[in-house]
């Protein structure tokens, strides 16, 4: 008898999940909305893109450094309390930055950089907490479907955030856009936390009797380190494509196309996520990563200097088809992180993933910039494809090493 097939409709039937899911997505809007709003605000204030880069660098550094610490706090204490504290701290930090940009002279930019660092340390861990609690809420049978739905919905958030910021900027200006982003983050954190409490998964963990076990760092576990490395490589590869496409549109004198091509890439990811949730739920993880690598390789062949001039439509097709593997690949990394970490340390595990992806994105941005100056957009996209191939190798190795233990378990239960 074949096992039952589960889909998105099954998720909708889980009590309280739709509300949790929606607010977890709203809690991430700041990630895509803030860059546009904060950049315009800081440029108008300081008239310097160097200051913008320093502020965002400090914000990212704080977010990455505190990821595992926030996760550990969620695992060992109350996730609801953590969401309230970080929500208030993050909103207050952005409020201070807005106030300084509105009232202080531009010479105060070092103070803004320092405040940005502290604000990053207070970033609300909605994504890592939600990914840690999904298996508790839906059970093992629906976890893969839920992670795929999350990766797909995250693409919608990625597109919606900049649109929201642009709308507020057009109506009221960048200062208000930063303020609206901050308030939305706080409200989402509070409501998401309240929903977690209602679902019974956000309170204090049960006290342990007897001696507390010695907790080794998750980074001492080979399988976990391998999955974190895969996450970092996948993120770096995606960043390489995003930046290279923007650079290509600038080079051909059609910068307005950057948004269109990014939308094609995102639309492909949405289509891939929906297809995986509906028609190909059992698609092997290695095949997903292989599809991403193949799509990036195909795109690299179409860009200069490999092809000096190419019609727009092949690039659009390559971006859309290559994008279909993005959401499925991200969903696979979420599943692997959850499997490679103990249940009572999953928030910490996803914190390490957040740190790794932030580091991968930062390193990729720096490397891509150098490669673009050196040889044009084809080379960094090809490097992105190579990084995806390395992620594929690590995925296959992880599966090969897990297979013998799986077979042993099956023999014991048979």
How do you describe this structure in short?
With 414 residues, the protein is mainly alpha-helical.
Secondary structure elements and their pairing?
Layout: H1 8-12, H2 17-26, H3 29-46, H4 49-76, H5 79-103, H6 109-121, H7 126-138, H8 140-172, H9 174-199, H10 222-251, H11 257-278, H12 285-302, H13 312-323, H14 326-340, H15 346-375, H16 378-413
Characterise this structure:
- With 414 residues, the chain is mainly alpha-helical.
- Helix 5 runs antiparallel to helix 6, helix 10 runs antiparallel to helix 16 (378-413) and helix 12 runs antiparallel to helix 14 (326-340).
- The longest helix is centred in the C-terminal third of the chain and has 36 residues, at 378-413.
- It contains 16 helices and no strands.
- It folds into 2 domains: 1-204, MFS general substrate transporter like domains (Growth Hormone, Chain: A, Up-down Bundle), CATH 1.20.1250; 219-400, MFS general substrate transporter like domains (Growth Hormone, Chain: A, Up-down Bundle).
- Residues 181-414 form the Major facilitator superfamily (MFS) profile domain.
- Pfam families: MFS_1.
- This is MFS transporter.
- InterPro entries: MFS, MFS_dom, MFS_trans_sf.
């Amino acid at each position: 008898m074949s096992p039952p097939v589960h889909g998105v409709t099954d998720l909708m039937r889980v009590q309280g999940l739709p509300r949790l899911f929606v607010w977890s997505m709203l809690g991430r809007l700041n990630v895509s909305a803030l860059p546009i709003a904060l950049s315009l605000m800081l440029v108008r204030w300081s008239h310097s893109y160097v200051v913008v880069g320093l502020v965002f660098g400090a914000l990212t550094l704080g977010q990455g450094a505190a990821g595992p610490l926030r996760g550990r706090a969620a695992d060992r204490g109350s996730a609801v309390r953590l969401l309230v504290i970080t929500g208030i701290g993050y909103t207050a930090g952005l409020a201070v930055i807005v106030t300084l940009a509105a009232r202080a002279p531009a010479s105060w930019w070092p103070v803004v950089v320092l405040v940005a660092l502290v604000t990053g340390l207070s970033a609300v861990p909605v994504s890592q907490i939600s990914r840690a609690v999904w298996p508790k809420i839906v059970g093992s049978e629906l976890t893969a479907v839920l992670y795929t739905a999350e990766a797909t919905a995250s693409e919608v958030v990625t597109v919606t955030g900049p649109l929201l910021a642009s709308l507020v900027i057009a109506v009221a200006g960048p200062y208000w856009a930063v303020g609206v982003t901050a308030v939305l983050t706080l409200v989402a954190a509070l409501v998401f936390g309240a929903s977690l409490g209602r679902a019974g998964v956000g309170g204090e963990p049960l006290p342990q009797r007897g001696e507390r076990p010695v907790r080794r760092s998750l980074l001492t576990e080979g399988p976990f380190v391998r999955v974190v490395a895969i996450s970092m490589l996948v993120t770096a590869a995606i960043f390489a494509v995003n930046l290279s496409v923007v650079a290509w549109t600038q080079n051909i004198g059609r910068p307005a196309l950057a948004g269109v091509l990014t939308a094609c890439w995102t639309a492909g990811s949405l289509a891939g996520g929906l297809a995986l949730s509906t028609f190909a739920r059992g698609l092997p993880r290695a095949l997903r990563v292989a599809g991403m690598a193949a799509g990036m390789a195909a795109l690299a062949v179409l860009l200069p200097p490999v092809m000096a001039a190419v019609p727009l439509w092949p690039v659009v097709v390559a971006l859309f088809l290559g994008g279909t593997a993005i959401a499925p690949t991200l969903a696979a990394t979420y599943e692997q992180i959850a499997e490679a970490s103990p249940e009572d340390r999953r928030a910490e595990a996803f914190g390490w993933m957040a740190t790794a992806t932030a580091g991968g994105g930062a390193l990729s941005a720096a490397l891509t910039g150098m490669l673009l100056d050196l040889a044009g957009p084809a080379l960094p996209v090809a490097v992105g494809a190579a990084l995806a191939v390395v992620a594929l190798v690590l995925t296959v190795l992880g599966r090969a090493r897990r297979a013998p233990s799986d077979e042993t378990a099956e023999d014991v239960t048979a």
